[in-house]
Amino acid sequence: MYLEREKLINFLKENGISPSPQRMQIYEYIATHDTHPTADEIYGAVYKKIPSLSKTTVYNTVRVLAEIGLINELTIDGTEIRYDADTRTHAHFKCTQCGRIFDISDGFDGNFSPELGKNELNLEGHTVRFKQLYYYGICRDCRENSN
Amino acid sequence: MYLEREKLINFLKENGISPSPQRMQIYEYIATHDTHPTADEIYGAVYKKIPSLSKTTVYNTVRVLAEIGLINELTIDGTEIRYDADTRTHAHFKCTQCGRIFDISDGFDGNFSPELGKNELNLEGHTVRFKQLYYYGICRDCRENSN
DNA sequence: TTCAATGCAAATTTTTTGCAAAGTC
DNA sequence: GACTTTGCAAAAAATTTGCATTGAA
């Protein structure tokens, strides 16, 4: 589902950016954690492997990775940006109690077109490049724990 | 579509919060501007009518208004929260060129259930209270101006 | 006079910017 | 050697917090 090392290196090179250890590790961390980490969380984890890492590099890298479409930015929170290496269109659910963000494979009505993101669409005269669907509520765990 | 003065006062009182001039003006500003203003923009505008206004009061007020459901928070941007007094479920389109945010009356596929927000829904075991659909792209004006 | 609401100042959090040092082709 | 990438430090932007003052019932 996510790019493996070989393909990642090629994809980066095709887009004119070099596969530095920092970039490889940052992408790998995002791709292997479905927690939709923030820049700070990415930094905290990758720092253990590359102690010289700076937050500036994390911010630079996630911007570059988002620009070439390797990851998506999630703005489900108003005050921090989260990153997702699963670039197939899917929705997200945020539990307002525990704060966790869950992937939702499809809109609840079965109509959250999974093909968007590849094709441009026209919406009331505007050209759509991308969309995000966010749900908010109480997750299963929090609901059951409160019983 | 938006609460007029009388109803606003009653609604605030019903929810145990007093209809102070600050709260009235802040709600009125959001309700009469479809620009989805940020706290800073609200402050800049309401400050002209209430020069003693502080940003803390703006932040306090928008939190309270959101809690009682008078306004919605938009997190279409990752780094700032915008406010919308139209609490009917509808989508938003953000132009990545000019930065403006447009109301979209309905999802492009006609299936963005307008009744959500009133009824709770179950989604893969989680309890949904609220949802937001955000589109990103180039607005009509920007597209035509670039020709 | 009690409690809620406001406002100032400082602190916190997230992200961005300027620039020098290090690495790459 | 030119160009890219990194990392530090400082700045900027958005939001929150502590607390004293004001205002209303």
Can you characterise this structure?
2 copies of one chain form a homodimer. Chain A is α+β, with helices and mostly antiparallel strands and 147 residues long. Helices cover 33% and strands 21% of the residues of chain A. Chain A is built from 5 helices and 6 strands. In chain A, the strands form 2 sheets. In chain A, strands 4-3-6-5 form a 4-stranded mixed sheet. In chain A, helix 2 packs across helix 3 and helix 3 crosses helix 4 (55-67). Residues 107-119 of chain A have low confidence and may be disordered. The A-B interface holds A 73-81, 93, 95-96, 102, 104-105, 107-109, 111, 113, 120-121, 123-140, 143 and B 73-81, 93, 95-96, 102, 104-105, 107-109, 111, 113, 120-121, 123-140, 143. Strand 6 (126-138) of chain A pairs antiparallel with strand 6 (126-138) of chain B. The first copy, chain A, binds a DNA duplex (25 and 25 nucleotides) through residues 17-18, 20, 22-23, 38-40, 52-57, 59-60, 78-81.
